[in-house]
């Protein structure tokens, strides 16, 4: 079994390659993994093109939702985008927060950071910056963000609990997040669960939906709401790289579901975080 370090290096390698691929290749695959499908349609992500702030150069077709559309970003907010890629969600967040706000994108792939910075310079955005770093240990001080967004990234991180703890640390009291991610309902076949390429493609790194929501609760968040959920149908020609025809048929009939969810949650204010009378000072 791969170690967490090996999985992180795998993701970094694959997403460095993805930064150089066309959007069409990324959209026809599992979050940009190399197992492209002949069924050319967007497997995971939703259409961003109608949202204010959309920039085609920054859209690599890697997402699985529209978290910025649900994030309730206000003018002047400080927004952090986890796994910012080429900058797509960061630029849409900037349209919401305006010139008086600030957007910080965090990504651990140098090629993505370079691409995002190049896009920001083209757009002359001076209040959008991109920092290289792990989202399990964000290069950001505590209590600085009003809103955190992320699109199809946490499923790539082995230590998901650590990411939610970091999100809690970085958000201001009363701040909130809106995150789109891949989750499961039922067990994936072993051939998919152990496939490295499908890990880099967002599917086999996913965990059970209830476990995912449990990590959010355990980190201390409140007002947890699923804002959107949709099924993800992986085409047979992709599954055929990992499963036999008989295994694919069994998987289709098993009731196992792969879903994209967009989840909202809030960091309590200091008063709301008190566990009992007299616990706050």
Describe this structure in words.
This protein is α/β, with parallel strands linked by helices and 281 residues long. It has a single domain (4-266), classed as Rossmann fold (3-Layer(aba) Sandwich). It is 32% helix and 21% strand. The chain has 11 helices and 8 strands. Strands 1, 2, 3, 4, 5, 6, 7 and 8 form an 8-stranded mixed β-sheet that branches. β4 (145-151), α6 (160-170) and β5 (171-185) form a beta-alpha-beta unit. It is globular and about 55 Å long. The model is unreliable at 26-36, 38-42 and 271-281 (pLDDT under 50).
Key attributes of the depicted protein:
eight-stranded mixed β-sheet; 281 residues; 8 strands; single chain; disordered C terminus; alpha/beta
């Amino acid at each position: 079994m791969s170690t967490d370090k090996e999985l992180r290096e795998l993701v970094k390698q694959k997403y460095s390659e993805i930064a150089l691929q066309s959007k069409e290749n990324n959209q026809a695959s599992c979050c940009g993994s190399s197992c492209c499908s002949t069924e050319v349609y967007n497997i995971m992500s939703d259409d961003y093109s109608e949202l204010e702030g959309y920039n085609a150069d920054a859209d690599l077709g890697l997402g699985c939702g529209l978290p910025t559309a649900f994030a309730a970003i206000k003018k002047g907010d400080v927004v952090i985008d986890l796994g910012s890629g080429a900058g797509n969600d960061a630029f849409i967040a900037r349209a919401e927060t305006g010139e008086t706000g600030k957007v910080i994108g965090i990504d651990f792939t140098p090629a993505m950071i370079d691409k995002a910075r190049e896009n920001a310079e083209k757009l002359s955005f001076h209040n959008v910056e991109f920092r290289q770093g792990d989202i399990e240990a964000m290069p950001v001080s505590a209590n600085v963000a009003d809103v955190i967004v992320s699109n199809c990234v946490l499923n790539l991180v082995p230590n998901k609990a650590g990411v939610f703890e970091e999100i809690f640390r970085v958000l201001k009291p009363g701040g909130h997040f809106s995150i789109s991610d891949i989750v499961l309902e039922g067990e994936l076949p072993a051939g998919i669960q152990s496939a490295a390429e499908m890990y880099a493609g967002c599917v086999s790194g996913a965990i059970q939906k209830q476990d995912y929501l449990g990590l959010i609760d355990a980190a201390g968040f409140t007002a947890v709401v699923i804002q959107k959920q949709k099924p993800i149908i992986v085409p047979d020609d992709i599954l055929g790289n990992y499963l036999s025809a008989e295994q694919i048929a069994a998987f289709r009939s098993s009731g196992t579901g792969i879903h994209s969810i967009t989840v909202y949650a809030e960091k309590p204010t200091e008063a709301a975080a008190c566990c009992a009378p007299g616990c706050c000072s």
